[in-house]
Each structure stands twice: as C-alpha cells, then as structure tokens.
C-alpha cells in the first residue's frame, strides 16, 4: 500500500471534510493479521452531526443541475481509473479478494459510476391524461421524480468499493445526500471513493463516510427521522433488526442467499463445472450470489462430480497479492472457524466430505460435500464461505422444488440446451434472477439486482436504485375553456 493511502485511512470523510479522532479502529490484513492503518471510531455525536449537515447537503444536491451531477460523477470515475492499481491494492489488502479479483472490482466500480452519471439524464416523468375521469376534464398534468433527501447506506466487507459505489453513485445522480457507514473491517476502500468525489468537486455536506462500530453509530443512522431511506447490504438477521428499528422510511435490502445451480443431463458438463467452481469459490465464497447448492440430474451426476472435484483440486489458495492465486483467506479467523463448524456439523450428521475441509487461521480450503442432510445448517442458511453442496435429482421439477425450499431467493443458475427447460425454471424458480448456462454468480451493474423472501427488499442496479431514491410528485393544471367544448 502506498503512503498516501495509509495517511488517508486515518481520517473519515465527515460532511465533505477529512476528520481525525483520538478514538480509532485498527484495520488488519486478514491474510497475516498485519496492521494496515487505523481509522476514526466515530461516536453517536459524529453521526448526528453528519445527519444535520446532510440536511443542508440534500438541499444543495437537489439544486445541482443534472449536467453538474453528471460531470462530478464522471470526474470521480476518471480519478479512480487513473489510480486503479492503488485502489485494487487497497481492496486486496483490507479484504479477502486476490489482486486479480480486486482489479475486477475497481473496473466494475468505474462502470457503476459512469452508469450513474448517464442515468442522471434519464430521470423522467410522464404526462397523465386527467380527462380519463369526468372530474379531470379541463385538466392537464404530469409527474416529476424528485430526490427523497437523505439516504443512509450500510455496506459489507466483501465488495468494499463497488457496493459503496452502487449506493453513492445513484444517490448523487438523483440529487440526494448520502451517509455511508462502511464495514468496520474494510473502511479504506470507501474512504478512497470519497477521495475521488472530493477531488471531482462534489459540494460539501452531500457525502459522508462515517467509520466506526455499527453498535455505536448504526442505530443513530437507521432510526433518525430525517434519514428518509436505508440502503443496506448484509446478513438477514441484521436486515430484520434494521427493519424493526427504521420506522416509516424506505428500505432497500440485499440480504444474501443460498444460491442453487441446476445441471441437467443435456448440459455442457465442462462449461457447467467451470462456471460453478468459479461461482462457488471466488472471493473465498464470500459472495451473496455465490453457488452453494448444485442440483445435478442423476444421469450425469457422476461425471459432473468427478470433473468438479478435479477442477476444485487445481484451485490455488494462498497469498492474495500473487497473480497466480485463485483464492485468499476469509475476512477473519472467526468466520473461518464458523465455516469449519458448519461443515463439521454436516459431516457429523451424515454428509460426506469429498475434498477440502481444512482450516489454517483465516484460510479455509475449497470444500465439496455430498449426501448433506437437508435439515442441517449448511443446507438451509447462507454459508458465506468456500463450501458447495452436491445433490442428485431425478428431473428438472425436483431440482426446482429443492431450489425453492429455502428462505432465500437471490440468484440461480441452470445449465441446459433445451429452451423449454430454461423457461420452466424461469417461471417456477422463486428468485430475483436466473442465469441460463451460467451460474447464479453473474451480475452486471446495470441490471436490476435483488431477491425475494429472506434475500431482501427492492432492487439495486443503477437505474433501479434511482427509482427507489426518488419519489413521484404529481402536477395538475386546471384550465378554463380547455380543449374543444362539446
């Protein structure tokens, strides 16, 4: 990490100003527990100040002409692009991603911001035919979309730059103020995003990145009546807690999954294996749309399993900074121990460990299980680690029923050459997205992204986030002697 990143990491971005504190949180590299830097441990008073300043920032943002919003966001994207390697190194150091995965996240962040800038020009209303009602004769009108005000964003550790951009970019594009509470363990990437917007000339008070413990500052953000929307990405239990506390405000929540992939007997087995191995183990499995359950038609179960294990065995686990590394550590040893416990529970209940199952500190080897009892924790909940479960199924209908039989529904994948099979899955699977001949671990930043059931509320994806971050305002003109009098 270069020196400028270390210096930046010691301050948070409070209403457009870089602010330090005597109270700090240490940021560690999960690979070797080396100290990277410290960031301020914000207080409840800091968060209250951020909200008060954001009230002014919301007015400033709402009055920014669209061309200025676009220009600022494009300049921020350009700033990141010019320093992309430094951003990637920061992501790789503070989080779990390898340097190759981190570079890809930086590219996606730049795309997210540029999409946000372009969507700013497409916040449209439409005319309304008021005379569809007898009372509407002699009236004409339309609706605008207006910003809602202050948005509170709470972001996770697994995509510490791009998932912040998915909240900040649309918020600024739509004329709002936004306060971000980044994951405590990965705050540096969010601060680097603020650096880009600061350099781009974003007016003060519109953006805050408040670092600290969720227990101390999270409730202030969530419950404050002047915060009109909470955009949260994280776990189901935390999302449910936020929903109980938030009160009467908008909620957008992506809460994880237990994502299935279906492999039918007519599928290209090697294509399915390659996609599912990557989908299961990228980012050390800490991916809300990562493949967790693979349901394979019985006729090809043996062939798929053999090829999947062979491919898994080649996965290189180790130093995140090496170009040859496929997978790094989990975010900390505590999470690796949890994954280990869930796997051991499944094995104790009768599951068969086919490969992996080994932990070394925060590292956990790519792991494959079969014969997993459907009532054990790992079969029902989101593992958020490098573990995948294989299940034989007799036909597509059984695969669909098993896919739906969890309290999650974010993404799913199906591998088949028959279009009728694909459409059967599309219409019957209870998920937010279905990828055909791809694992569910596929997303572009312009598509609607979100789930059903325990996977969340609403949709991200720039255009769709802007819809949530704005509200329609109807305008009606009553005119005298309007139109032809009958």
From TrEMBL:
Gene3D superfamilies the UniProt entry points to: Aldehyde Dehydrogenase, Chain A, domain 1, Aldehyde Dehydrogenase, Chain A, domain 2
Domain Aldehyde dehydrogenase stretches: 18-475
Keywords of this entry: Oxidoreductase
Family: Belongs to the aldehyde dehydrogenase family.
A Pfam entry, by short name: Aldedh
Protein name: Aldehyde dehydrogenase family protein
Protein source organism: Siminovitchia sediminis
Domain of life of the source: Bacteria
SUPFAM superfamilies reported for this sequence: ALDH-like
Lineage: Bacteria, Bacillati, Bacillota, Bacilli, Bacillales
InterPro entries linked: Ald_DH/histidinol_DH, Ald_DH_C, Ald_DH_N, Aldehyde_DH_dom, ALDH-related_metabolic_enz
